[in-house]
Write a structure and sequence with these properties.
By secondary structure, this protein is mostly helical. The protein contains eleven helices and four strands, in the order αααααββββαααααα.
């Protein structure tokens, strides 16, 4: 029987994503951890752990969830306990990746818009604490996910595959838990990132106008303003990272909202249904967001490109030097 078009696309798309995305995130982690990209300690920490979170998404969602059914359908990965652990880790990694993007956006908002708070908040110590809290809460919050799943079938007294428990859509407690999950990710992060970006852009536009006016009054002839240039570089990195997140999460965000207002259901198996196709496309774009940041750094950061060239010219020496930074 011929597979639906969306499934055929997924069978090609996810392996390619894994082949490209996993090495890209590993390279980003190694380069950023060296601390030679001209970025502050707090920015470097956020970007490194964002790359770690993205790498976990690619491992647990792309490889161990999306690819395994097509290439390893009867492996131990389909045992119900293993499958449940993987799905739990999948949601943990998504939450870590998403909320680290939020905290990075907030850090840049403080650095650009709150000069009085910047010196106390935008430090390596604060970034380490925030990252530890985000990762810990993501783990704790998703522990109940393990108990949401039940075996799809029992073969020779062995539980295989994972499906949600029969009362998942009827139990008030489970319905409340899932509603909390969807509000926490992606609703709140999505809205926070757009709000913080809007406030940051407004502040930069206003600050640049004021600074341009002061410079005009002083009749300074220098064509370059170092402070404006630094702001420009910061906003390019911020908008590229968080803007990419917003764009690639947009489809699944709309799908999650739609189930609240129209008669559709998430995770349906009718792959000819337009909503299901849109939902599956949203998951593909969401996974893509886990491997775009490395390419954003390569395009927007000159020193990252230089480190990348050094890595390609002499990987053995580069890696041996990088190990000293861990």
């Amino acid at each position: 029987m011929k597979q639906p078009v969306i499934i055929q696309v997924e069978n090609i798309y996810y392996p390619i994503l894994a082949i490209i995305g996993i090495p890209a995130n590993v390279v980003a982690i190694v380069i950023l951890a060296r601390g030679k990209c001209g970025l502050s300690k707090c920015i470097t920490l956020y970007l490194v752990y964002m790359a770690v979170g993205d790498l976990m998404v690619l491992i647990f969602e792309v490889i161990l969830y999306e690819i395994k059914d097509g290439y390893f359908p009867n492996s131990f990965l389909n045992l119900t306990p293993v499958c449940s652990v993987n799905l739990t880790m999948l949601f943990m990694s998504i939450d870590c990746s998403v909320w680290l993007t939020v905290t990075f956006t907030f850090d840049r908002f403080v650095a650009i818009c709150c000069p009085k708070l910047r010196g106390r908040y935008c430090t390596g110590k604060t970034a380490s604490l925030v990252i530890a809290v985000v990762c810990s809460l993501s783990v704790i919050e998703n522990i109940p996910m393990y108990f949401v799943y039940a075996p799809r079938e029992i073969i020779n007294n062995v539980a295989w595959s994972c499906g949600v428990t029969p009362d998942f859509y009827t139990s008030p407690l489970l319905v409340a838990f899932w509603s909390f999950e969807t509000i926490l990710t992606p609703f709140i992060p999505f809205l926070l990132i757009m709000l913080l970006n809007a406030l940051t852009i407004r502040h930069i536009i206003h600050a640049n106008r004021v600074r341009s006016g002061l410079r005009a009054k002083k009749k300074e002839e220098s064509s370059a303003d170092q402070e404006v240039d630094n702001r420009r570089k910061s906003i390019i990195l911020l908008l590229a990272v968080s803007g990419s997140f917003v764009l690639l999460w947009m489809v699944i965000f709309v799908c999650f909202i739609s189930v609240r207002f129209i008669d559709v259901q998430l995770l349906a198996t009718d792959y000819d249904d337009p909503f299901t196709v849109a939902e599956q496309s949203g998951y593909m774009l969401r996974c893509l967001s886990a491997c775009t940041n490395t390419f954003i750094y390569a395009v927007s950061q000159t020193k990252f490109r230089e480190e990348l060239k050094t890595l390609f010219r002499g990987p053995c020496g580069f890696l041996s030097n990088s190990l000293k930074h861990f």
